[in-house]
Amino acid sequence: MMRRLFFIAAALVLALPCLISAGQEPAVIEGLVFDEETRSPLPAYVSLPEFERGVSAGPDGRFRIVLAERPIPGRTVKVVVWLIGFKRLEVEARPGEPLSLALELEPLPAREVVVSADSGLAGDKPQAAVTLDRMDVYRTPGTAADPLYASHILPGVNSPPDASSLLIRGGAPDETAYFFDGIEVSHPFLSQSLHESYFSIFDNQVVEDFTVSTSGFSSKFGDALSGVMDITAKDTLFKGEGGLGLSILGLNSYLGMPLDGGATLVGSLNLSRSELLSALNGDDGQSFGTGNGFGKLVVPAGRAHIVRLVGLYDRYGYTQEGGFQAGSGNGIASLSLTSSLSSQLVSRLLLARTFYRAEFSQEGVFKTVIDDRVLQARLEGILDLDRHFLEAGFDVLSRSQEVSWEAETTGGQNASSIRRAAYLQDKFRVLDKLYITAGLRLSSLTMGRPGWQADPRFSLAYLPTKKDAFRVSAGMYSQFGDLFALRRDSDLGPRKAYHASLSYDRVAEDTTLRLAAYDKEYRSLFVEKEGGARLENEGRGYARGAEVFIKHRGRKLDILGVYNFLSSKRMEGEVAVLAPSPYEITHSLTAVATIKGSRSSLGIRYSYATGRPHTPLEDRCWDDAEQRFQPVWGEPYSLRYPSYRRCDLNGTWTFTLGRRMVVLYFGVTNLFNAPNILRYEYSDDYSVRNNAASIFGRTLFLGMYFPFF
Amino acid sequence: MKIKYAFAAALLVVAFAPFSEPSASAAVPRDASPSPSPESRILQARNRLQEGWDDWNAETMREARDQILGLLLQAGPKNADLLYYAGLSEYRLTVHAFSTGETNEAGAALGRAKKYFEDLMELRPGWSEPYALQATLLGFDIALNPSLGMELGMKTMNLFSRAERQEPENPRVRYLKAASLLYWPPEFGGGADNALPLLQSAVELFDKDKSTDPIKPSWGKEEALTMLAGIFKQKGEKDRALACLTEALAANPRYGLARRMLQELQ
Q1: Which residues of B touch A554 (CB under 8 A)?
Q2: pTM score, whole prediction
Q3: A56 Cβ neighbours under 8 A, 6+ residues apart
Q4: Any chain B CB within 8 A of the CB of A466?
Q5: Tens of pLDDT along A117-163?
Q6: Which of B233, B225, B215 lies closest to B252, judged by CA?
């Protein structure tokens, strides 16, 4: 009996702790995981490595892991939390104490961040940057599906009324450099005259993406004071694609196809004549024709090398009643070898030849021929170290220009030069959200003042959230200028611009906003001395401004708005005092709305711009020596042309014919036929002033396109 | 008497176990016994995922996904096989959530799946399947936001073409493309008539596919055959549909969709 009692008592004593604990909750690790930035819950994976136990948090971010055995009081457990795209988090936790775990986004590799404060881009969306996609180029009214015209709706970009050339932040048209597939292109326009240039030689069908840098551009680019447009053609394709278009202007076609061995061929051919367009919109006595052919062959050579052959040729012919004729031919040929030396190191060697020849003639009066040939070689390397993205390279460009004329006198002149440059740039992540680009470009020219020019450049980007970016850029930019001027004045040094700019971008899912402010200080501009007999680097100037860009993409409606403010003065050329810049478009505003249906779209665009300054004609006086009237000009650039206004419409309708997709499209340029003035022209005796109007009166354009997939 | 001692010993174990130092069996319980190899753990998780997929059970698939994530956390984010299966599990959870109308859940799983395959494409650019799976996922993106159709449609086609160029004989790439084509408009080369020959060729490729690496993906044949059966059923060709389903169940007797369809047809 005693023994039985002893055993019962012993059992009770021994079981007591168990009975006490039986009323308690089991030991658990539980809590909440959320995004540190947005505070939204995250379904992260929570692991207890010591226990080889883990669970994903629910959509509400909550998790709970019941431990099989309760650890001793005071013991902590290692908890590891991870979700793809976020940084791994490790904490020590006490069972039973609720955890609140904030995950930080994984920092972006340096290559994926746009650090420069001033780029507008097309193509894949990079981190918090202003972008236009390929469809924007097609959908935006008034762009004629031309990437150059489309880039006019980017912040900081303007143009002389209706011309293609880019006035970037108050810079002159020749202050912008153009690159196509890495080739520097001196004449990117289909039609180029003394005053304006229209349409580009780049066919949007073969354009993969483009970037317009309105300052703060990469050290890879040089010999440009204001901006760079960098266009990339389509490259390796894995499926065939193409299309055939027919419009009242002519025919356009595109074909891209993969070939055996991983090679790709991309080509396009476009032919146009203006007669039908003129007949539909009222014949104005002018006609033109264009032809454009492009071909690119991409051939892998082994596993690590790719050879690319690029060829482009454009021709343009224009005739006017009265006998004026203009014609040009514009070509590019290049060969490049890209080598992936390792998964992180890529090099590219490019050899290219560009040529441009234009003729302007008036039957029996004059004939002018311009010939411009460029040979260039570039060697570039990229080293991607995730945190650092290093770029370095050398380029040599040999240019030969010749101008000849036949009029009352016959003559000609030519100039040749070789430009050499080297650059180094490092884009690196200083902190998880702070990126810096530092670069240096050295360049020299065999004409003008001898010596090497050093252009340091610096940009900083701070990305406090994945939607917001603050950017600051500063840098020095040099441009050697017109070769004929340098040949005449061998002491001329390069013109210079110092850029400083600040921008804020917010790129939410459907809406992009950019606010930017900048200051560009010009130095060493060319100023005429002794009545134009020689030039000196005594000029200067500035362009200061601000920009607002907003783009919203809705399910049925896309909206885009751009406003640019600019204040600019220059002392340059004939103007020996600091006067308003001829490129100062004080206010410019563009608004675009596109309504999208499942098979149709309708877009409307309105553009307004302050008229550019011009020098007024105050009077005329008789010159006995010359036996003709001479103009008496007023203060330089003291008056403005009337403001510019234009409204454009366009639309598409997609349907199937048989089993083939067909796109019908229309465009109305300058819907209200606003008489936008390009410039004033005066009669020989300066008694009559004529308005030289934009070539874009009200024009209706119709076409159809058959895409192939 | 022996029973009494045994009772007391049992009480001792029960009473003291919660207070014992959890260093040996409790804290690191699996270290005490020989651990299965990483390969066998991957296989175990993969089979669990397949089980959930066959039974159309999201809970089992989530459980498998968590096993895979645990292994991924141990192995590090550069393990291509684990990234693939993590992506595949989220892909399958996306499909499940879509079919049950849980669009929020579908969108979340879709985002994660795409990220896994993005990382994998960067890590193993020569592997075709992540491209094909990513292309399929873009189709779900379009379903969530039809206004992205034009932009993502082109991307989808490019990704499939890239996958096909890289591994023309991969049966899963062929199957996924056929599955996507089935839902594309005919003017873009889609629809049942265009998907049918592709599915048939995918089945042929599955028959030829003799991978010796157990870790490599081996799913898909029963899915292709069941989809083929669905098309034949739609066309009124019951015998051919039944033959496909029989073959599908021979490949994977657990595949629930084929079993249900077979019951319906019989």
Answers
A1: 147
A2: 0.82
A3: A43, A44, A45, A46, A63, B62, B65, B66, B69
A4: no
A5: 666 555 544 555 566 666 677 778 887 778 888 888 888 888 877 78
A6: B225
Q: Is B112 on the interface with A (CB under 8 A)?
A: yes
Find the CB nearest A7 among B8, B26, B160.
B8
Residue with tokens 């089991």: A26
Question: What residue has token string 């900083």?
Answer: A460
Residue A674 dihedral angles phi and psi, to the nearest 5°: -65, 130
| Chain B contact set for A80 (CB, 8 A) | 73
Cβ-defined contact of B66 to A59 (cutoff 8 Å): no
The partner residue sitting opposite A54, judged by closest CB among B4, B70, B161, is: B70
- Domain boundary assignment for chain A: 22-103, 110-213, 227-708
B176 contacts B135 by C-beta, under 8 angstroms: yes
Return d(Cα A565, Cα A548) in angstroms, integer.
9
Asked if A326 and A334 touch (Cβ cutoff 8 Å), the reply is no
Angle at A22 between CA A21 and CA A24, to 5 degrees: 65
Mind listing the pLDDT tens digit for each residue in B20-51?
333 222 333 344 455 678 888 999 999 999 99
A462, A128 Cβ separation under 8 angstroms: no
| Tens-level pLDDT at each residue, chain B (266 residues) | 343 433 333 333 333 333 333 322 233 334 445 567 888 899 999 999 999 999 999 999 999 999 999 999 989 888 999 999 999 999 999 999 999 988 888 989 999 999 999 999 988 888 999 999 999 999 988 888 777 777 788 788 889 988 988 888 999 999 999 999 888 877 677 888 889 999 999 999 999 988 788 889 999 999 999 999 999 999 999 999 999 999 999 999 999 999 999 999 88
C-alpha B178/C-alpha B228 separation (Å) is: 10
DSSP string, A557-605: EEEEEEEEEEEEEEE-BT--S-EE-TT---EEEEEEEEEE-SSEEEEEE
Rounded CA separation A676/A693 (Å) = 6
Instruction: List all residues of chain A from 197 to 216 with a beta carbon under 8 Å from chain B.
Output: none
Contact A660 B150 (CB under 8 A): no
DSSP letters for B39-77: HHHHHHHHHHHHHHHHHT-HHHHHHHHHHHHHHHHHH-T
Query: What residues 604-643 of chain A have any CB closer than 8 A to a CB of chain B?
Result: none
Q: Quick one: DSSP state of residue A127?
A: B
Per residue in A181-202, pLDDT (tens digit) is 999 999 998 877 666 777 888 8
CATH superfamily, region A22-103: Carboxypeptidase-like, regulatory domain (2.60.40.1120)
Q: Which of A289, A356, A359 is nearest to A329 (CA)?
A: A356
Structure tokens at A598: 């499942």
Closest CA to A565 of A541, A542, A546, A591: A546
Better-predicted residue by pLDDT, A321 or A219: A219
Q: What pLDDT is attached to residue B223?
A: 95
- Measure in Å the smallest separation between the Cα of A46 and chain B Cα atoms: 9
Tell if the CB–CB gap between A656 and B12 is shorter than 8 Å. Answer: no
Contacts of B137 (CB under 8 A, 6+ apart): B91, B94, B110, B113, B114, B117
H/E stretch holding A280: helix A275-281
Bridge partners (DSSP) of residue A638 are: none
H/E stretch holding B136 reads: helix B128-144
CATH superfamily of A227-708: TonB-dependent receptor, beta-barrel domain (2.40.170.20)
The distance of B70 to chain A (nearest Cα, Å) reads 6
